[in-house]
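In practice, a research group might receive sequence data for several interacting partners and want a quick structural hypothesis before committing to experiments. The following worked case mirrors that situation: the sequences arrive first, and a predicted assembly follows.
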Amino acid sequence: EIVMTQSPATLSVSPGERATLSCRASQSVSSNLAWYQQKPGQAPRLLIYGASTRATGIPARFSGSGSGTEFTLTISSLQSEDFAVYYCQQYNNWPALTFGGGTKVEIK
Amino acid sequence: EVQLVESGGVVVQPGGSLRLSCAASGFTFDDYAMHWVRQAPGKGLEWVSLISWDGGSTYYADSVKGRFTISRDNSKNSLYLQMNSLRAEDTALYYCAKDVSSSWFDYWGQGTLVTVSS
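A structural hypothesis for the assembly, expressed as tokens:
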């Protein structure tokens, strides 16, 4: 099983600032990585797939980068609606799809 | 508009059984594989199971293999998860999710809560 580790567990950011979230895989997943956003009481929402491709309707302030074992989700200027938990997910080791433990982005 | 609506979650005793359902609409159901993903209270996401578009292939996480069975009825646009020999650690919100290329999930339902407790 590929273990996905996200850091930090909690990120305190002021509105308008940049947020940088990290995701590390225990072995290479190439670019087979997705990011999701989950707000309290809601289902996850797909943000990024293929490590860097934004899903339909996702604002340009969300960007993904990385390959192999190191990945980053960047939110360029945090809006109030962006405070949420973010998960990465690898799909290289199919069908044993695995998620990271999540990063909570909270208001500073 | 894609909609996925799960149902069937209840409180069940350890060792018991339960069947979850997911009603799909807004897309051609039998064109897509489907997944179940769960989330224990206050915890992260865990992939549970995948079924191919025609039901011919199924896959399970090791944590549920041999106890859970995924199935689908394309004539009813419905996905199912039969859960047997339930354990306390199966307590979670269970989501059905639409597949993209057997890789990631582009739409999720709102989930149905399964609580395993005596």
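Before designing any experiment, note the following. Chain B has a mean pLDDT of 96. The longest strand of chain B covers residues 92-100.
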